[in-house]
Amino acid sequence: MQRISIAMDVVFLCMAITTTVSAGSLDISVVKADFTNKSFRFQPANGLGKTEGITRRDPSDVIKVGDTCFVWYTYVDQNKLPARFKRLRASGYVGTIWYAVSKDEGHTWTECGEVLGKGPAGAFDSWAVFTPNIVKFDNRYWLYYTGVKLSEGKDVFENNSTDEFAMIGVAVADSPHGPFRRVTNEPILSPPPKSDRAVESSFDSYRIDDAALLVRDYDGDGDMDVWLYYKGRNIDHGHSGPGKTKMGLAVADKPQGPYVRIKSGRPILSDSHEVIIWPHRAGVAAYASKSRTLEFAPDGVDFTTKPIHARTEPRPIAPGCFRPDLTEPVAFGRGITWGICMKEPSGPCPFLVRYEIDLTLSQ
Fold first, then answer.
1. β-pair partners for 288
2. Pure H helices in 24-135
3. Residue-wise over 159-168: b if at least 16 C-beta within 10 A, else e?
4. Rounded CA separation 72/70 (Å)
């Protein structure tokens, strides 16, 4: 799935050049002004708050359909876990995906239940599914998620750093309420096989996680493409891997793929443990959670040539933001103002809160 022909490399190289040129005229100082002296403010997300024996974590971006906002997240009923799973109760590694709805811009939520459970026996997502995200494409709703399975010969997920690979899958529904069905029992994006690695393993050679989506024409042909931003972890980093994750990007012309890694599979942003992106002006903005900085790529790919490094406090944990563009794609983004994030991720009962931040355009 990840093997790319020389012809495909040439096509995507041309696509990258086209995108870069079209976004190159933006004055980066204007974006810096958008991001200067900004801070996150937190409020309760009533209905999704701290609950004894329940884990709610890793919220998706928020979409609005009609007068209703939707959010998807990882859910664990700790009371139903066998004793040997209890140490994982605050994590997503025993989770499934639930959703909730709001009629008041995310202040109050009604929990609606599970929309995606574990995959079939032996599949890449047969042990747990978590960190969901959403996009509307071709008038259908595509739910991206991370899946893990047990290592051979094991009867419980250890969360080790050697053989418990994470991959991204996708399910689809005609309504944001579901029912969602898996497009395939195979991942749409997985760590590259050894034969594709250089001397040093690739940044995403162990775990691929935290999908964030953008719908925008990538190659200039007038058709919408799916940009899949994700977090990658290097297998060579072992137990220190979670502190060294980086953000990558893969692109496809339809949600189910096939996806092609951009920049020959190299990362596009360091200091990014959680992936949050949104269209900003003609480019793409991101929050790099490890450095606590707002960053910007004029072409949606190059965050490093002209870095913003706008430090923003306090840090939201695993944030998703309210993004109207996920249901109505835009060529020019006007910023974000609120979203949902996590509190107390190490437990005992992680929960969700609302945040606000004014990242609209300064001029």
1. 293
2. 28-35
3. eebeebbbbb
4. 7
> What pLDDT does 314 receive?
94
DSSP reduced 3-state for 19: helix
Half-sphere exposure of 32 (CA within 13 A, CB side): 7
As a whole number of angstroms, the distance between CA 159 and CA 214 comes to 30
Q: Which CATH class is domain 6-356?
A: mainly beta
DSSP H/E element including 9: helix 6-23
Q: What is the pLDDT of residue 194?
A: 56
Neighbours of 181 (CB within 10 A): 10
* Closest C-alpha to 230, from 196, 189, 197: 189
Q: Which pLDDT score, from 0 to 100, does residue 174 have?
A: 98
Residue 72's alpha-carbon distances to 104, 109, 129, 130, in angstroms, are: 17, 12, 12, 10
| Cα–Cα distance, 330 to 211 (Å, whole number) | 19
Can you give the pLDDT at residue 332? 96
Burial class (CB in 10 A: 0-12, 13-18, 19+), 153: exposed
Q: Concatenated DSSP letters for 287-345?
A: EETTTTEEEEETTSS--SSS---EE-BSPPEEEEEB-GGGTS--SSEE---EEEEEE-T
Distance CA 7, CA 1 (A): 15
Does the predicted TM-score (pTM) go above 0.85? yes
Rounded to 5°, the CA angle 319-320-324 comes to 155
Rounded Cα distance between 90 and 87, Å, is 8
**CA–CA separation, 249 vs 298, rounded Å?**
15
- Residues of the chain where predicted confidence (pLDDT) is lower than 70: 1-25, 194-199
How is the chain split into domains, by residue range? 6-356
CA distance 221 to 224: 8
Q: How high is the pLDDT of residue 199? A: 54
Q: H-helix or E-strand containing 56?
A: strand 54-57
- What CA–CA distance (Å, rounded) separates 199 from 185? 31
